Amino acid sequence: MDGTLVDSEKLWTIALDDYAAHRGGSLSQQTREDMVGSNMTRSMRLLLVDLGLPDGNSEIAGAASWVARRMTELFGEGLPWRPGAEEALRRAKELGLRTALVTSTIRPLTDLALDTLGHDSFDVTVCGDEVEGKNKPDPEPYLKAARLLGVDPADCVAVEDSPTGVASAEAAGCAVLAIPCEVPLTPGPRRTLRDSLADVDIAALGELLAPAA
């Protein structure tokens, strides 16, 4: 979702920078890049360590609550689409393709984002707080989505923008359409790189499954 369908990674950067300033520090570029595609708990631990602050469970929970409140404000102002994303979702629906939203973002924020993406755009949604701590790059988010869809992960194409997300999808056995946003992505055996979803023929996604045959 973030960085793939909507250009919300920049909003996360605003919220994280605001929290760092609130705590009297600043977030390093490297730590911000390490957070891309990660779940809230891991991101908050990275943030607190980067700021030189305690990173126990209560501190992580407090930071997560603060950042989530700020993100709720930012998401509420509207989310800009990534190039080609709105059209790609519409085309997938026209073609009758079954789709799952697999995001590291927590459910409350995802539901806000779905006000932009469309609550009926996906057959199932899997959020970062719904995988029992087995977040990306663990394969579980994509495995759970495949289970909910009733399909084999090997018959799925995952669209991802981050190394963490790509690793999760590939570990689950999916082919990956990799479209970088905030951080670069490299080629791989089951990975097809594109500049944006505007460059993708949604009707031809099945061709990406060929390497698994």
TrEMBL record:
SUPFAM superfamilies with a match to the protein in the record: HAD-like
Coiled coil: none
Pfam families: Hydrolase
Classification via InterPro entries: Beta-PGM-like, HAD-like_sf, HAD-SF_hydro_IA, HAD_sf, PGP-like_dom2
Record key words, sorted: Carbohydrate metabolism, Magnesium, Metal-binding
CC cofactor: Mg(2+)
Top-level taxon in the UniProt lineage: Bacteria
NCBIfam families noted in UniProt: HAD-SF-IA-v3
Homology family: Belongs to the HAD-like hydrolase superfamily. CbbY/CbbZ/Gph/YieH family.
UniProt name for this protein: HAD family phosphatase
Organism: Saccharopolyspora endophytica
